[in-house]
From TrEMBL:
InterPro entries: Cbr1-like_FAD-bd_dom (IPR008333), FAD-bd_FR_type (IPR017927), FNR_nucleotide-bd (IPR039261), MRET (IPR050415), OxRdtase_FAD/NAD-bd (IPR001433), Riboflavin_synthase-like_b-brl (IPR017938). Keywords: 2Fe-2S, Iron, Iron-sulfur, Metal-binding. Gene3D superfamilies: Nucleotide-binding domain of ferredoxin-NADP reductase (FNR) module, Translation factors. This is Ferredoxin-NADP reductase. Its cofactor is FAD. GO terms for molecular function: 2 iron, 2 sulfur cluster binding; oxidoreductase activity. It comes from the Bacteria. Residues 4-105 form the FAD-binding FR-type domain. SUPFAM superfamilies: Ferredoxin reductase-like, C-terminal NADP-linked domain, Riboflavin synthase domain-like.
Length: 241
């Protein structure tokens, strides 16, 4: 088994996703590459030697020594406020990874794909969408993206662009935009039945988000007849930010 080591990572580009979320692209010399769906550990070290580290999903497929993350600010957090509000191009952090081998999608897969993301759980799913596009894969994808309101939408411009074979449904839990076909509310059986794939198609299902959302979505998929071994989940729990 390959031993994971900490590597210096220099910030080369940032972009705001929402008022509280930011995408960061780092250059990591010697980066071994990664698969869509994996994550990394990020470590900060203060001048007095104090360290803090958190795990973040990779937001894009492997691209040489470039690594891309999207980070949401956690109020009173130790790491996320620095990454979303303070760090500038040329600054360095440490990264360790990639981590994870179950919640991944590879372009050689031929099964239809259902992605179900809650809030910032869209990040590893977006890496899969981008990996599909980059590979020229013709595997059909369906994305159900649940978020509080339209202002919380990550990758808004990119997801508006046509992407043949990718169908997107937005589910709003607190405030739906004017003209939305669905009232605001939590994910329901009908959402997955209408926006997902029939269980008979044997899709690979990836569900990512807060624990309660993931458990609810996975239970609904099971109720619709999807095989448990085809439902892969990734939960975001409180980590201190």
């Amino acid at each position: 088994m390959r031993r994971l080591t900490w590597r210096a990572a220099e910030l080369v580009h940032t972009a705001a996703e929402t008022a509280t979320a930011r995408t960061l692209r780092f250059r990591v010399p010697g980066w071994p590459g990664h698969v869509a769906g994996q994550h990394v550990d990020v470590r900060l070290t203060a001048e007095d030697g104090y360290t803090a580290q958190r795990s973040y999903s990779l937001a894009a497929p492997a691209d040489g020594d470039l690594v891309e993350l999207t980070v949401e600010t956690v109020p009173d957090g130790e790491v996320s406020p620095y990454l979303t509000e303070v760090i500038e191009a040329g600054d360095q952090v440490e990264l360790r990874g990639p981590v994870g081998g179950w919640f991944v999608w590879k372009p050689e897969s031929k099964a239809p794909v259902l992605l179900v993301g809650g809030g910032s759980g869209i990040v590893p799913l977006m890496a899969m969408v981008r990996a599909r596009r980059r590979a020229g894969s013709r595997v059909p994808f369906r994305l159900l993206y649940s978020l509080r309101d339209p202002t919380r939408r990550y990758y808004a411009g990119e997801l508006r662009r046509p992407d043949p074979g990718l169908d997107i449904s937005y589910l709003y839990t607190r405030l739906a935009p004017e003209g939305a076909s669905r009232a605001a509310g939590r994910i329901m059986l009908d959402d997955l039945a209408e926006g997902g794939w029939p269980a008979g198609f044997e899709p690979d299902c990836y569900v990512c988000g807060p624990t309660g959302f993931v458990e609810a979505a996975a239970d609904l998929l099971l109720a619709l007849g999807h095989a448990p071994e085809r439902i892969r989940t990734e939960r975001f729990g409180p980590t201190g930010g």
